[in-house]
Structure formats: C-alpha cells, structure tokens
Write a structure and sequence with these properties.
The chain has 381 residues and is of the alpha/beta class. It is 41% helix and 13% strand. The protein contains 13 helices and twelve strands. A seven-stranded mixed β-sheet has the order 2-8-7-6-5-3-4, with helices on both faces.
C-alpha cells in the first residue's frame, strides 16, 4: 500500500497512540473535583499548552472542539456577529466547512458575501482586499493552505492589511492544512479566530481546536454544561485531546526535517510527470505536502479506481467535498482560480507525509504512468 492522501487524514502517530493509551487511565470527568477528574484535566491542560505554544498564543485562547468543521462553524457563526454590519469577505476556494456556514448566513440571516478574485496560483490581491474593506465589513474568512491545491495565502500580509484598513473587522483563518507544517505566528498575522484539526497532524479523528483571541466572546453553537469556558459545552474528549496535543508537539518538533523531506518527495514526484505528458500542475506557490495536477483526457474517478487497484491511494480533491461529487463534477476551487472546466474536471490530488519514502514515490509514479498510458489507450478505441 502506498498512501498519498494525507491531506484527507493522516495515520495516527506513535506519540498520539501513546498519549491516548495513557490518558485512558485518567477516565474521570475533567469537570469533577476529585483526583480522577483532576488527572483528566491535567491531560487537557498539557495538550492546550502544547497547541498554544506552536502558534504563539496563550493556552486560555485554545478551545477544544470535535474537529475542524465545528471549529470553522463556531468561528464563522460567532465571528460574524461580534461587530456591526452584515458584510463578509471570503473566497470561492474555501473548504466546505467554511463555505456552507457562510452561505447559511447569507441565505437565512441576510449577510452579504463578497468573494475576492483569485489568481491562477490561488492567491488574493491585497489591493482588492483593501479596496473592498472601505465598505463596513464584519468578517474576513480566508484559509491559509488550500486543502485541494495546497496553495498558500500570505496570511500575515492579509492580516496586517485587514487590520490597518478596518481594525474592528474579525479575521478568521482555517489553518487545518498548515498547522504544524508551515510556520504561522497568529499574533503577528493579527488573526482573531483560527481553526485546527487533530487528524491532519497524526492525531485522531473527532478532535480539533479553535483559537479565539483573548477579549472576544463568541456565542456558542449549543448550550449545556459550560465546558471550554462556556464556548463549547459537552464533556471533553480527554483521550482525543491528549492525543492531539502529543501528535502536534511531535510533528512540530520535527517540522523543519518534515518540511525538507516532504519537499524532496514532492519534487521527485513532479520530476517524473514530464515523461507522462499532457499534465498541468495547479496551484502556484504551494505547500510541500499537497500536489494537485490535471491529467488531460483522464477522469479522476477512473484514475482513482485504477490506482487503488494497484495499491496507490489518492483523491480527487478535499475529502469532505469528494464524497458529494457526482459523475462529471469539477473542482470549484480550480474554477475559482480561473482555470477551464477541462482542467477542473481532470484534477487529482496527491498529498504527502514525512512517513512516505522516495522508493514509494518512485513506485507510485511508475504506476501512475502505467495507468495513464492504459487509460488513454483504451479511451481512444
């Protein structure tokens, strides 16, 4: 098996597994005042401190959630109502867990959505942002790394321009694909709200976190026991949180080594594509962890099945969107970059991990070349 779908989910790291197993012994409710509850709370405190330290914030600004989707929903529904106005600035390339709540605000609560233009590399124009911020705006919501193409936004430049033009406007960033992988100083980028997901960095599914800048008080999505500072009621997933903190600390501790290794894998992969022919690399300035390509004449679902039969696992885009795609669907992300429908309809995503090896990349690209050659030959008949 050669797994190249790490942007969808990663294999749990040994650090996460060890922390999970250890924390099972602290099965007390972290809200309880007895020793078992105190032990469980200690597990959460260490994880909170670990995650906060990685992005340069205070532990009291980290709130645990059930994952990145909940964190994005909390940030958007809450952040849009922290300042006056009904205008939200975003892009059409956002993850579905951001786009859908934004659409909900527009359809049901009268908010106006302004979609920034994107260049073919997936980047926004800072001057356009500054211009549109002349109108009262309550929220700007933009991802750091796109989950489908790997395109990297200059989030620090965006944050500084935003706060200079409109200091009261909330700035929400989905950092699920960049957390622990690319350096990000949340304070320097002047981010107000940032969403993270455990299973993108070797943690377990069903756990995430939301950074909320100190001083902000967003309304919760649901109510109950008042856990997580009344922001996210519900007994916390202590084992998942402990695993998240351990996985993040482990990944970040090796982030330079991970970056260099993963970049070498991606470069080796790209180096083989010329021999296949009629392939376009999409995304411009991208994360070393994600590669999006369009292969002329090949439908993504056909290629995915062919590679899967050979033990190579990839995707046709964001996993949360792929399971909804119908036959002949196309990438709305690439369409928002200005690419043709043909390019968008033939796009596939390879996403890498520090655990992958150069031998795996060679084997995967050999199988890719064979599958493309076979599929092109059969479709011409």
């Amino acid at each position: 098996m050669i797994y190249l779908d790490h942007a969808a989910t990663t294999k749990p790291s040994q650090a996460a597994i060890d922390a999970f197993n250890r924390s099972i012994g602290s099965f007390g409710n972290p809200s309880s005042l007895h020793q078992m509850g105190i032990d469980a709370e200690k597990e959460m405190t260490f994880a909170r401190q670990s995650i906060a330290g990685i992005i340069g914030v205070s532990p009291k600004e980290i709130y645990f959630t059930s994952g990145g989707t909940e964190a994005n929903n909390m940030a958007i529904f809450g952040g849009a109502k922290l300042t006056r106005g009904k205008r939200i600035i975003t892009t059409k390339a956002e993850h579905s867990s951001a786009i859908e709540p934004l659409k909900r605000l527009a359809d049901k609560e009268g908010f106006e959505l302004y979609f920034l233009n994107l260049n073919t590399g997936g980047g926004i124009d800072i001057e356009e942002l500054e211009e549109v911020l002349k109108e009262p705006t309550c929220l700007v919501s933009i991802h750091h790394v796109n989950s489908e193409t790997g395109s990297v936004q200059n989030i620090e430049a965006i944050g500084c321009a935003l706060k200079k033009a409109s200091p009261a406007t909330m700035f929400h960033v989905d950092i699920a694909q960049s957390f622990c992988k690319l350096p990000i100083d949340v304070k320097k980028a002047q981010i107000d709200l940032a969403a993270m997901s455990a299973h993108k960095v070797g943690g377990f599914k069903g756990c995430g976190a939301l950074y909320i800048r100190e001083g902000l008080s967003i309304p919760p999505l649901f109510y109950g026991g008042g856990q997580e500072g009344n922001i996210r009621s519900g007994t916390e997933n202590v084992a998942g949180i402990a695993a998240f903190g351990a996985a993040a600390l482990d990944f970040w501790g090796k982030h330079r080594e991970n970056f260099d290794h993963t970049l070498s894998l991606k470069s080796a992969f790209i180096g083989t594509l010329e021999g296949i022919g009629d392939i376009q690399i999409n995304g411009g300035r991208t994360s070393p962890y994600i590669l999006n390509i369009s292969i002329k004449g090949i439908k993504p679902e056909v290629l995915l099945n062919a590679l899967s039969a050979e033990g190579v696992y990839i995707s046709s885009g964001s996993a949360c969107a792929s399971n909804k795609k119908q036959k002949n669907a196309h990438s709305s992300v690439l369409m928002s970059y200005g690419f043709s429908k043909e390019i968008a309809e033939t796009a596939v995503r390879f996403s890498f991990s520090p655990d992958n090896t150069l031998n795996e990349i060679k084997e995967a690209t050999d199988k890719l070349a064979d599958c493309v050659k076979f599929l092109r030959r059969t479709t011409r008949r």
